[in-house]
Write a structure and sequence with these properties.
The chain has about 110 residues and is an alpha/beta fold. Helices cover about 45% and strands about 15% of the residues. The chain is built from five helices and four strands; from the N terminus they run αβαβαβαβα. Strands 1-2-3-4 form a four-stranded parallel β-sheet. The radius of gyration is 13 Å and the shape is globular.
């Protein structure tokens, strides 16, 4: 199966692992990505930026496949998005509303 979305995300199967703060971490995200799906890492809490950075690095140590950082628009997301961009995360997902400025920043950083 192939589609424009799968191609854009760099995945081979149409499976997206929900970003589960507290119950899904680097190992789950990497396992889904390694299986051809899209693992999403919750990375939206500004008070946990160092831990989020560590999780991103852990995923990168476990896979060379695409994965994404999930950001929550109900809270300030400038710093979490900057962290994801700085660490080389290739995909950003947003929930609880749209923030055009954050989307432009993510696209400007070549995130899908």
């Amino acid at each position: 199966m192939q589609s424009a979305l799968l191609t854009k995300l760099g995945i081979t199967v149409p499976v997206v692992a929900a970003p589960m703060m507290g119950s899904g971490g680097a190992q789950l995200v990497a396992a889904v990505s390694n299986a051809g799906g899209l693992g999403l890492l919750p990375a939206w809490r500004e008070d946990r930026l160092p831990a989020h950075r560590d999780e991103v690095r852990a995923v990168m140590g476990l896979t060379n496949r695409p994965f994404g950082a999930n950001l929550n628009n109900q809270y300030p997301q400038d710093e979490p998005l900057s962290m994801a961009i700085d660490e080389g995360v290739s995909i950003a997902s947003f929930f609880w509303g749209l923030n055009a400025g954050l989307i432009r920043r993510a696209k400007g950083a070549r995130m899908a």
